[in-house]
Design a protein that fits this description.
27 helices, alpha+beta, 6-stranded mixed sheet, 922 residues, 45% helix
Length: 922
């Protein structure tokens, strides 16, 4: 009895050593998922993994070990010469028993490995069990697309598993027979005992029958053939490979019958000859014949024979990427850019983005971090209602950098410094007198905002984009909240984030899982203290929905005084028939079906279904009904900040550049391929790069209101002229609508690279940039934005100046470059208003921005309040004097004394004009 107890204890310790960490991880995950209210989701995934692993592992063990046991049972008796002595007889019996145990142990280990590998296919198993019709059939076999997306991946896995398992069983069986001397090779010729031939022949016949089923699946795989011309079945596939596969399928069945028939005949010549014939047939029918058909018949008549298959490929690719509803329309002949057009599109002008992400992030970091331990991980673009008008803004969360906290102890890192604080928001189209961002929300204590709509009531950021370590809240240690002058303000967490650490048992498991003994030893932790894990937005969403592809850029949203993170998630597949893959992972289907929202304070994760027509998200909704919520349940404050995702739009533009050619002949000849427009990099002026999609507030052609869109320009392949631009609408009433505007082929617009060439060749702009670069400053070229406006195109490029000698340089928005195609002009001025006036100089009318009253959120200095009662000419001189003073001070800080002298001279001139009669109303 004691021996059994010791054995049981040894087995328990072995299991604890092997799976203890995994079991502790499951326990902690259960607590974490329970915190979010998704315990059923985790248990559902875990249950599927366990059942699938057990089923496939047990089946593997039964198939392999059953054949091994049969081989051992049929083993011939030990020859007499080995058992003449009793000691030798016992030794032989011990060897046989040891060999049996070794085979059992080997089969068990292999079965465990097979079970673990099978458990990784839980996702395809769930989709197989919960298919949803796409309502579209493939053009070759007439199967619903749902069969390929939901069922075929798991069937292919089952086929591969069966082949692997049966081959292992065959090799293991042959090895046992060889060990038992029932199978020998004499002078290169195999010699079988009768039962061995029966055993191996039956296994070989089963493998051949499984292979025949594999050929049936191979027919479906023709719809995913990567060819030189199209992706999917082409003429040679349908008229050569498909019949060849059918022939090979029949050949496998016939060969399986030959193996069974050969059991009753002596020798193995017939089965071996059959295998050789099958290999030869596979080579001739599966490879040589299709190549001959391709070379002799298809290539000379490719445009005619491949036409229907090209059409299938185009339709499927457009549908798989959500581009079927896209309609092309003419942008029209280029109109003259006038002051009237600018005034008519004042909403677009008021939201022109003059700040790039990198310079603005640098400015935020230098001006608004305020403490070394705060950082801004990223800058996001969004729109908010400010002063009664919807404005495009840029914003970033002030997050905690755990590597820079002033207290390096365990308490400081995990109990005291636990969260970031607040956010920064600035206008996209304005700068201060120094060329710095014009803030709408700034500072910490107090956090200043220019409008009541931007008030922040819950500024603490416990969950975000930065990667903080785990932390504990509601402990005996007061949490650092934010600095106030030379003092620190503390705070006690009052939210629902994290889960209670409980008593000694739970704390011991947490300490073991996190590898931190302080969790068990610390006296500052209480049973009600809460542990916060997975504190980055992507980690939280990935844990809750690992089957969704995430957008790489979560963005911050301020709604009703609280901070949230919004993350676009996608359903994907690699099994959409005829659709061309556009991802490195081989995905050829993409839908932005889910909008994930993460509370920055509580860490709650809510997944809203934004595309209920997507069959894949409908399938997952069946499996996890508690995981998804309809988009109609999203609060209105959050819904107003939904935007079309960049990852999806970038992929769609890349695909549409080729697949807008819907005529098969045009597609075949590649006559009208569009490429993404390119621009020069901001750091390397010799290296061009594709323009990434960008958000802009504008009025689309034919629309009567300003809205937020995501757009990207196209140029003709091999040329720099702009041929079209694509826009995806972001506002709720038209969300997801994609429009493409094409320029007339006889009047193509200038492409970004052509406009850049004009800028670089301008006799005024180019020398000035070169001068700045030579005087201890670095000129940073902003992205060139292409803004269609009123039947013409406006090109906008901001310039930033950054001192190279400064220890913490702050980029200053120093100039605005504007260009137009009609009139063909390029200008560079200090402000957007001045640049617009210069661009339309000589045209009738005047830009309305000059006469607009100052708005609280658009103020650029105190001079606006002073000049309200002065005549227009005096107002202009006051503004000019103020701008000259600001420019002189900026030049003084940079050490640019030549510019400093010029600006002082201009200031004297403006003041002199004021003194000599500038107050008269002229």
């Amino acid at each position: 009895m004691n021996r059994y107890l010791w054995f049981a204890l040894a087995v328990a310790l072995l299991l604890l050593f092997a799976f203890g960490s995994r079991l502790a991880g499951i326990f902690v995950d259960l607590l974490w998922f329970q915190e979010l209210g998704y315990r059923a989701v985790y248990l559902g995934i875990l249950r599927t993994q366990i059942l699938l692993g057990l089923a496939m592992g047990a089946a593997f063990f039964l198939i392999v070990y059953a054949n091994i046991r049969i081989a051992r049972r049929w083993a011939p008796p030990v020859p007499r010469q080995y058992v003449e002595l009793a000691i030798r007889e016992r030794a032989a019996e011990l060897a046989r028993r040891s060999f049996n145990l070794l085979l059992l142990a080997g089969a068990l280990v292999a079965a465990v490995a097979a079970a673990l590998e099978a458990s990784t296919h839980w996702q395809s198993a769930l989709l197989y069990a919960n298919p949803v019709s796409f309502g579209r059939a493939d053009p070759l076999f007439g199967q619903d697309v749902g069969f390929y997306v939901f069922r075929l991946p798991f069937l292919l896995y089952l086929y591969q598993w069966l082949v692997f398992t049966l081959v292992v069983a065959l090799l293991a069986t042959a090895g046992v027979h060889y060990f038992d001397k029932a199978l020998q090779v004499v002078m290169g010729v195999p010699r079988f005992a009768p039962h061995v031939k029966v055993h191996l022949s039956v296994l070989a016949a089963i493998i051949l029958l499984v292979r025949a089923w594999g050929y049936q699946l191979a027919k479906y795989k023709l719809l995913f053939s990567p060819g030189n011309l199209i992706y999917g079945a082409n003429y040679a596939d349908v008229h050569a490979r498909l019949p060849a596969i059918a022939i090979l399928q029949v050949a496998c069945v016939v060969l399986a019958a030959i193996f069974i028939f050969s059991i009753y005949r002596r020798g193995v010549v017939l089965p071996i000859a059959g295998l050789g014939a099958l290999l030869l047939l596979s080579l001739l029918a599966g490879t040589v014949y299709p190549q001959m058909v391709q070379s002799v018949k298809v290539t000379p008549n490719e445009t005619t024979l491949e036409r229907p298959y090209i059409q299938n490929h185009i339709r499927a690719t457009l549908d798989a990427y959500g581009l079927t509803p896209v309609k092309d329309q003419e942008f029209g002949e280029s109109r003259m850019l006038t002051a009237e057009i600018i005034n008519q599109h004042q909403g677009t002008i008021d939201n022109l983005r003059l700040w790039d992400h990198v310079p603005l992030l640098n400015a935020y970091s230098q001006q608004q971090s305020l403490r070394l331990y705060y950082e801004f991980a990223d800058v996001d673009v969004d729109r908010y209602t400010v002063g009664g008008q919807e404005r495009q803004v840029m914003l970033a969360a002030r997050e905690l950098n755990p590597a820079r906290i002033p207290v390096s102890s365990w308490i400081g890192r995990h109990l005291q410094y636990t969260h970031g604080y607040g956010l920064v928001m600035s206008q996209v189209n304005a700068a201060s007198a120094e060329g710095w961002p014009q803030y709408l929300i700034k500072d910490i204590d107090p956090m200043l905002s220019v409008a009541p709509e931007l008030k922040v009531t819950t500024p603490q950021v416990y969950y975000g984009e930065a990667d903080p370590d785990y932390c504990f809240v509601n402990t005996a240690v007061a949490e650092f909240d934010h600095p106030r002058g030379d003092q620190n303000v503390t705070n006690t967490y009052s939210g629902t984030g994290g889960f209670p650490i409980g008593g000694a048992v739970r704390r011991s498991i947490l300490a073991f899982q996190l590898g931190d003994a302080n969790i068990l030893l610390s006296r500052d932790l209480r049973p009600t203290s809460r542990l916060m894990l997975r504190r980055t937005v992507p980690d939280r969403v990935r844990a809750v929905a690992p089957f969704l592809l995430q957008d790489p850029d979560p963005y911050l949203v301020l709604s009703d005084g609280r901070l949230y993170w919004m993350l676009d998630c996608y359903t994907t597949s690699s099994f959409y028939p005829y659709s061309a893959p556009a991802f490195e992972g081989g995905y050829n289907y993409l839908r932005n079906s889910v909008k994930a929202v993460v509370d920055a304070y509580n860490g709650s994760v809510t997944l809203y279904v934004s595309d209920p027509t997507d069959p894949i998200v409908r399938s997952y909704s069946r499996v996890f009904p508690a995981l998804f919520a309809p988009i109609s349940r999203m609060p209105a404050g959050l819904r107003s900040h939904i935007r079309y995702p960049e990852l999806l739009f970038n992929k769609q533009t890349e695909v549409y550049g080729t697949y807008h050619m819907r005529d098969p002949l045009v597609f075949y000849q590649k006559e009208d391929v569009w490429t993404i427009a390119k621009e020069l990099g901001s750091t390397d002026s010799t290296q061009s790069r594709r323009i990434e999609a960008y958000y802009v507030m504008m009025r689309l052609p034919g629309s009567d209101h300003t809205e937020m869109v995501l757009m990207r320009p196209f140029t003709a392949r091999g040329k720099d002229n702009m041929v079209a631009w694509m826009a995806a609408r972001c506002d709720s009433q038209d969300y997801g609508e994609i429009q493409v505007y094409k320029f007339p082929k006889t009047a193509l617009a200038e492409g970004p690279s052509q406009v850049e060439a004009r800028i670089n060749n301008d006799p005024t702009i180019s020398p000035q940039i070169s001068l700045w670069d030579q005087r201890g400053s670095q000129v940073i070229h902003g992205h060139l934005l292409v803004i269609p406006i009123g039947g013409t195109v406006l090109y906008v490029r901001p310039l930033y100046l950054q001192a190279e000698a400064a220890s913490s340089p702050i980029p200053e928005l120093t100039r605005i470059i504007l260009a137009s195609d009609n009139p063909r002009r390029v200008v560079m001025e200090r402000t957007l208003q001045d640049a617009l006036r210069a661009l339309v100089a000589g045209e009738a009318g005047e830009v309305a921005t000059e006469q607009q009253p100052a708005r609280p959120y658009a103020a650029t200095g105190p001079q606006q309040a002073v000049t309200q009662s002065l005549p227009p000419n005096a107002q202009r001189l006051v503004r000019e004097a103020w701008q000259r003073l600001q420019a002189a001070e900026s030049a003084q800080r940079r050490g640019d004394w030549a510019a400093y002298g010029r600006e002082l001279q201009g200031l004297r001139s403006a003041l002199s004009q004021l003194q000599s009669g500038g107050t008269t109303n002229r």
